[in-house]
């Protein structure tokens, strides 16, 4: 009976810890300076035991951050040294290989003390708009060009912030106030997590986290291994080709379900690229684990033990295991395609579970605005860096349509126009769903978006493109059709590349069409009422309704008439 009461209490504490780290994450959202954190949720937060094992993560955040950060705290402990860990300390890094994959992510770790004894750590990560160097983009040829490197070090030593570090950072970035503000926001959100943890420990009369930590990790490990045990012991191969920078990239994986674990071996994938789209293993591993966990054990909370049975391997200096000094600024472009590559293999082992391919990587771009240089600029023209996160369509699922303009696998939110335009003198002239971009299928792929981007009067800008799916759109599954490809051009017809920094003169706009998710299953099996609904909503055209789904001319005319009369809602 005592054991049952203890387990019930531990379950309550486990749920409480998840609430603690969610409050930690929300504190970061509320205090961050960067719109990428406040509006898009490009962050992570978690609590760790004294060995650096993640016990709980916030629901708010991205798997690339949190699953990579799961390995990071042990690096902090090793680099700082246990003998140098004191109450009031805060540690910092943006190391791509010991953090979350590129210099534009800052990770903060704070030791948590209770009654003068170290009981654990809080960690959080946020994407920052600028870190100096060439700026956020794929143009660099080595990590040294990509920005300021901050090794694992103390941001605060026993409560005293390192002002020398602050001055160095301020002197090397384009948006110093914003970046320093984000650093303090990261430190503050860890402090919020610490306070709530101590409240919980006091309430439950805990001296340490050993008992609850063991309960969390043992139960998570056991539950995950049970899910794996129910799967067939098989291997399968998957592959995917994506645009790359100048040349296409091949991702290959051999997925093997073994006793107690699943291995994703990326041997055979392309080698390093000359430009900054290479992916450190820590980030590729984060998304390989995430893909499998979503498909096999989605209801088990994320922690060190629930991730442990998912193993990722890749030869050194392949595109998914880039090592120093490879350029890695846009490592997310390759990393976000890892789940669909894994699913290409998993679908051959357990069919009917995983979705069709989606847009994959985020449809990000950064605009570097400045006063126009062709003629004298007005006095109110300013320099500004504006980063905006956008999404194409998600792939259709076995039983559901793909989500429109929704990021999978990153989970980052699409930023509202108002927040983007508030960040600097940029104008979003158009932002709307892209009809016919979702691949046809029994379940339709999610729609991409149209966007038109310009600058306020008196400004010119550099447009940093970070797109893919131009030459290799999302592929359908089980008979579903491909999603629409990405397109990019200037409004005067000048061609633009899918990646890299490109000059846009005063008065010109960038015209974008983001990719759609692919369809799942034979389009001819899609119920007619769903086809009519899509037509009424403007998700598909009359041509697509007839050609892809076989809807009759009479039915199409009926839908169009009903929409005109207001009898069918668009």
Automatic annotation (TrEMBL):
UniProt GO molecular function: 5-oxoprolinase (ATP-hydrolyzing) activity; ligase activity
GO cellular component, one term: cytosol
Annotated signal sequence range: none
Annotated EC: 6.4.1.8
GO biological process, one term: glutathione metabolic process
Domain Hydantoinase B/oxoprolinase: 8-523
One Pfam family linked to the record: Hydantoinase_B
Alphabetical UniProt keywords: Ligase
Enzyme class: ligase
Protein name: Acetophenone carboxylase delta subunit
Originating species: Albidovulum aquaemixtae
Record lineage: Bacteria, Pseudomonadati, Pseudomonadota, Alphaproteobacteria, Rhodobacterales
Gene that encodes the chain: apc4_2
């Amino acid at each position: 009976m005592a054991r049952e009461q203890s387990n019930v209490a531990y379950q309550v504490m486990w749920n409480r810890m998840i609430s603690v780290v969610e409050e930690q994450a929300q504190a970061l959202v509320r205090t961050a300076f960067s719109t990428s954190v406040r509006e898009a949720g490009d962050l992570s937060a978690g609590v760790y035991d004294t060995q650096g094992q993640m016990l709980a993560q916030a629901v708010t955040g991205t798997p690339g951050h949190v699953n990579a950060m799961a390995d990071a705290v042990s690096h902090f402990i090793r680099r700082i040294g246990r003998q140098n860990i004191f109450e009031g300390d805060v540690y910092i890094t943006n190391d791509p290989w010991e953090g979350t994959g590129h210099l534009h992510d800052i990770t903060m770790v704070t030791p948590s003390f209770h009654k003068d004894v170290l009981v654990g750590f809080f960690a959080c990560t946020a994407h920052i708009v600028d870190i100096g160097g060439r700026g956020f983009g794929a143009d660099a040829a080595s990590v040294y060009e990509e920005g300021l490197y901050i090794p694992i070090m103390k941001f605060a030593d026993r409560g005293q912030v390192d002002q020398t570090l602050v001055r160095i950072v301020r002197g090397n970035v384009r948006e110093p106030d914003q970046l320093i503000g984000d650093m303090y926001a990261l430190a503050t959100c860890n402090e919020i997590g610490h306070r709530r943890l101590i409240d919980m420990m006091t309430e439950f009369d805990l001296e340490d986290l050993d008992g609850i930590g063991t309960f969390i990790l043992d139960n998570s490990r056991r539950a995950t291994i049970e899910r794996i045990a129910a799967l067939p012991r098989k291997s399968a191969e998957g592959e995917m080709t994506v645009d790359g920078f100048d040349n296409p990239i091949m991702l290959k994986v051999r997925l093997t379900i073994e006793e107690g674990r699943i291995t994703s071996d990326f041997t055979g994938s392309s080698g390093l690229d000359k430009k900054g789209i290479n992916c450190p293993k820590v980030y590729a591993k984060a998304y390989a684990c995430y893909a499998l966990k979503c498909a096999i054990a989605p209801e088990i909370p994320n922690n060190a033990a629930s991730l442990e049975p998912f193993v990722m391997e890749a030869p050194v200096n392949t595109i998914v295991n880039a090592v120093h000094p490879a350029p890695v600024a846009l490592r997310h472009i390759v990393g976000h395609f890892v789940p669909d590559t894994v699913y290409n293999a998993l679908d051959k082992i357990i069919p009917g579970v995983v979705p069709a391919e989606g847009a994959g990587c985020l449809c990000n771009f950064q605009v570097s605005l400045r006063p126009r240089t062709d003629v004298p600029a007005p006095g109110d023209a300013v320099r500004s860096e504006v980063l905006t996160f956008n999404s194409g369509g998600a792939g259709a699922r076995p039983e559901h349509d793909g989500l429109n303009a929704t990021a999978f696998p990153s989970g980052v939110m699409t930023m509202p126009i108002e927040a983007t335009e508030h960040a600097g003198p940029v104008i979003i002239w158009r932002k709307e769903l892209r009809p016919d971009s979702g691949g046809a299928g029994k379940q339709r792929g999610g729609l991409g978006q149209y966007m038109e981007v310009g600058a306020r009067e008196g400004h010119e800008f550099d447009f940093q493109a970070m797109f893919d799916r131009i030459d290799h759109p999302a592929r359908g599954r089980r008979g579903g059709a491909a999603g629409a490809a990405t397109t990019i051009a200037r409004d005067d017809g000048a061609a633009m590349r899918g990646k890299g920094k490109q000059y846009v003169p005063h008065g010109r706009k960038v015209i974008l069409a983001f990719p759609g998710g692919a369809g799942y299953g034979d389009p001819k099996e899609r119920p007619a009422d769903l086809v009519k609904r899509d037509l009424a909503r403007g998700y598909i055209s009359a041509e697509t309704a007839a050609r892809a789904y076989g809807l009759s001319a009479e039915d199409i005319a009926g839908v169009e008439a009903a929409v005109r009369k207001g009898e069918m809602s668009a």
